[in-house]
Specification:
Its main location: nucleus. Pfam families: Proteasome. Keywords: Cytoplasm, Nucleus, Proteasome. This protein is α+β, with helices and mostly antiparallel strands and 180 residues long. The chain has one domain: Aminohydrolase, N-terminal nucleophile (Ntn) domain (Glutamine Phosphoribosylpyrophosphate, subunit 1, domain 1). It is built from five helices and nine strands. The strands form three sheets. The chain has a five-stranded antiparallel beta sheet. It has a two-stranded antiparallel sheet with strand order 1-9. It has a two-stranded antiparallel sheet with strand order 2-3. Helix 2 crosses helix 3 and helix 4 packs antiparallel against helix 5. The radius of gyration is 16 Å and the shape is globular. The termini are close together.
Length: 180
């Protein structure tokens, strides 16, 4: 969710297989830079392949970009790298719905984007949602989001949206974690 010179990303903490809960503190949002976050909804084994394992494809490409260009990666560039990574596997795709949120370190503008599982980027100016609670999140976000929210207002808005949405979804929950 984007505000005025600020951005927030949130996720629930439940990790489960269908109706069976395995963990209640599973991180789904990862920090890739001082003002850059990526969150994954979907199949957690593919999440591990794309982001978290030792041979992480996303971290590798991010590091190669930063070494080759000799500068920090911008959020829009990361979203493009992630979309290309997913599109390469379009015929046997990863079952993940990534969300990229960050502040551009040069202009200071907020950037949010999401992709589908084959890498089609969506770059709205207000908010993006992904996961099992998308219908509930769309309703809450459309109701509560306003233009030019300050960081405190943005935190309250995204917190209310995620908590109310996961209360109405039996496949999500066990609290939420918000990054501002």
């Amino acid at each position: 969710m984007a505000g005025e010179n600020c951005v927030a990303i949130a996720s629930d903490l439940r990790f489960g297989v269908q109706l069976q809960t395995i963990s209640t503190d599973f991180p789904k949002v990862h920090q890739l830079g001082p003002r850059l976050f990526v969150g994954f909804a979907g199949l957690m084994t593919d999440n591990e392949t794309v982001y978290a394992c030792e041979q992480s494809r996303l971290q590798f490409r991010k590091n190669v970009y930063e070494l080759r260009e000799n500068k920090s990666i911008r959020p829009k560039t990361l979203a493009t790298i992630l979309a290309n990574l997913l599109y390469e596997r379009r015929f046997g795709s990863y079952f993940v719905e990534p969300v990229v949120a960050g502040l551009d370190h040069i202009t200071g503008t907020p950037y949010i984007a999401s992709t589908d599982n084959i890498g089609c980027i969506s770059e709205p100016e207000d908010f993006v949602v992904a996961g099992t609670s998308t219908e509930q999140l769309y309703g809450m976000c459309e109701t509560l989001w306003q233009k030019k929210m300050k960081p405190a207002e943005l935190f309250e808005c995204i917190s209310q949206c995620i908590l109310n949405a996961v209360d109405r979804d039996c496949l999500a929950g066990w609290g939420a974690r918000v990054y501002l």
